[in-house]
Amino acid sequence: MSSHTANTELKLIGKLILEGELHCETGLHIGAGKGSLEIGGADNPVVKDAFGRPYIPGSSLRGKLRSLLEHSSGLAIPSELVYLSRRKGQEVRIHQSDRPDDEICLLFGRNPGRMDRGSGEGAESKSASPARLTVYDAPLDQDSITPQMRENLDDELTEVKSENAVDRITSQANPRTLERVPAGARFHVRLVMDILCAEDKELFPRVIEGLRLMEDDSLGGGGSRGSGRVRFSGLKLTWRGKSFYSSGAEQAELVSGADLAAVQTLAAGSDFAGKLAG
After folding, report:
1. Which residues contact 141 (CB under 8 A, 6 or more apart)?
2. Average pLDDT of the residues of the chain
3. Which of 268, 234, 266 is nearest to 252 (CA)?
C-alpha cells in the first residue's frame, strides 16, 4: 500500500504522460454491443469510430488494468468488492474501500454513497478521491494493416473468426462468428497520470505492473480462445510539471523508444521521484 493518509493534501504537481504502440499479437475483439445484427455481418462486431475504423476504447484498457491490479493485489475477493450493477445475469463487482492508502482507489478514483458489498452487510462510504489515471481511446494505425493483409481479410480492416460451441451429449454444433482486428495491427495508446501530491509518485510503478500483466493476459473478448494477446513498444514517458501549464516551462522526456521493462526500471529507480518536480 501507499504512504497516503487521510490528511494528505492534494495540489497539482504535474502530469506523467505515457505514449506508445499497442501491437496485436493475435486477433483482437472488443465488442460493439449492438442490439441487432447486420445482414451478412458477424454475430459479434468490433467497436468502430464514426469513420468505420476499429479502435480500443479507453474504458476497455482502463478496466482491464484495474481488474489485473485488483487480482495482483489480492483484492478480488467478496469482502473487498462492491456492486456496480446487480441486474440478474449482468452483475458487475469492482474493488472499493475507504482506506486512504488503497492504491487501486487512488489510481482509479472512488465515489461516496451507499455500497452493496459482494458479501456481508452493505455500507455507507464517506470517502471520495479523484482518479489519478486517465486512459484515452487508442486509434488504429491504418498503415499497420498492410496490402498483403488486406487481401486475406473479410472486411477492409477486420477479419471474421468462426467458432463452434458443441453440445456434449448430441455433438450438435452451434456456429458463431467473431469479428476481430487482425494480428499485426497497431494502435496508439496514451495514458496520463496526475501527480496531485508527493505520495502519488509511488503509484506510477503499479500502472506499469498492470501493463506488463496485460501482455501475459488478454484484452477484449475471446481471450481464453486465442484472441486479445497484445504487446507494448516504442514507449515514451514525458513529465510536465505544473510550470509547464502555468508559465510555459519545458517538458522533460524521461525515456523514449522503450519497452515496458525499461520504463519499469526507470520508475523503480531511487531518483525517479526527484525527476518529477513542479
Report:
1. 21, 185, 186, 187, 188
2. 91
3. 266
What ranges in 76-178 are assigned the alpha helix state H? 103-108, 147-150
* pLDDT value of residue 120: 63
DSSP state of 3: S
Q: Which H or E run includes 56? A: strand 55-56
Contacts of 167 (CB under 8 A, 6+ apart): 173, 174
Name the CA radius of gyration of the chain, rounded: 21
pLDDT at residue 278, rounded to an integer: 77
Note the pLDDT tens digit of each residue in 29-51. 999 865 444 544 567 899 999 99
Phi, then psi, of 221 in degrees rounded to 5: -85, 160
Q: Mean pLDDT across the stretch 157-183?
A: 90
**In this structure, is the dihedral angle defined by the CA atoms of residues 108, 114, 119 and 120, taken in order, positive or negative?**
positive
**CA gap 81, 85 in Å, rounded:** 12
pLDDT at site 37: 45
Question: Are 192 and 198 contacting, i.e. CB atoms less than 8 angstroms apart?
Answer: no
For 157-204, the DSSP string reads: S-EEEEEEEE-TTT--EEEEEEEEBPTT-EEEEEEEEEE-SGGGGGTH
